[in-house]
Amino acid sequence: LRMEDSKSKESRGALIVLEGLDRCGKTSQSSRLFSSLEGFGYSVDLWRFPDRNTGVGQMISSYLLNQTQLDDRTIHLLFSANRWEKRSMMESKLRSGTTLIVDRYSYSGVAFSAAKGLDIEWCKAPEKGLLAPDLVLYLDIQPEEAAERGGYGGERYEQLEFQKKVSQQYLMMRDHSWKIIDASLPMEDVEKQLSALVLDSVDLCRKGKPLSQ
Ligand code: DGP
Ligand code: NA
Ligand code: NA
Q1: What is the pTM of this model?
Q2: Are 75 and 38 contacting, i.e. CB atoms less than 8 angstroms apart?
Q3: Model ipTM over 0.90
Q4: Ligand 1 binding pocket includes 112 (Cβ within 6 Å)
Q5: Which string of b and e fits 66-87 if b means at least 16 CB within 10 Å?
Q6: CA separation for the pair 137, 16 (Å, rounded)
Q7: 46-74 residue pLDDT tens
Q8: Ligand 1 center to 39 CA (angstroms)
Q9: Calpha distance 42→60 (Å, rounded)
């Protein structure tokens, strides 16, 4: 009976989100986590938001590349729509036992728009009803240090003064699902810390931790 319990249909994948400023190392760490979980034999997918491959994602991409101009609220809602269009796929993956490593999620949505001066409650509203992450890994870095890392790539938000504001917004949003990791440490040290946190979270979800919104 005990064995049946652990194999019950409630066993699911974990929703793991990485957040942080541009150039904090999130994208490299996401792929490292993906490979190591895969190596351990877990079913795992690597996702990122914005997902630039959808129709909405292409509009977002052209905005970020400064090829189109959009009103602040309009682009905010597009970023959110880009998460909504993946919601049902996200839920079915998690329920079928696949862990998702997600590079940016709703917290980016709120932090980047609130940094422009939009009301934070207005920014949070369209995110309500998306799945809640089991674990948020915040890669903490000083905006100045991030800016020095090989420079920014030239997209719309990659400017020091703006990133300082984003950083303040992020830190106000911390909740119980967050773990703050010092992203100025060597890559291998960051990876070790992340990996331990992720394995714990995956384990809890396999044991039946409920999925929430
Ligand atoms: P990335 O592909 O992770 O480099 O993200 C592209 C840029 O878009 C980056 O500066 C962060 C920003 N961003 C990501 N998600 C959102 C969002 O939901 N809303 C806003 N306003 N910006 C976002
Ligand atoms: Na970027
Ligand atoms: Na992204």
Answers
A1: 0.94
A2: no
A3: yes
A4: yes
A5: eeeeeeeeebbbbbbbbbeebe
A6: 8
A7: 999 999 999 999 999 999 999 999 999 99
A8: 29
A9: 32
Structure tokens at 107: 């917290």
**Residue reference for tokens 């986590």:** 33
- Of residues 147, 132, 159, 138, the one with CA closest to residue 64: 159
Residue 133 DSSP SS3: coil
Q: With CA atoms as reference, report the closest residue to 28 among 158, 209, 187, 203.
A: 187
* Phi, psi angles (nearest 5°) of residue 110: -75, -45
Amino acid 162: pLDDT: 98
> Is 162's C-beta closer than 6 angstroms to any atom of ligand 1?
no
pLDDT reading at 7 higher than 70: no
Q: How close is the Cα of 7 to the center of ligand 2, in Å?
A: 40
Tell me if 29 CB under 6 Å of ligand 1. no
Which helix (H) or strand (E) segment holds residue 206: the answer is helix 187-206
Contact between 48 and 82 under an 8 Å Cβ cutoff? The reply is no
For ligand 1, say whether the CB of 105 is within 6 Å of any of its atoms.
no
- The Cα–Cα gap between 147 and 24 comes to 9
Round the CA-based radius of gyration of the chain to a whole number and report it.
17
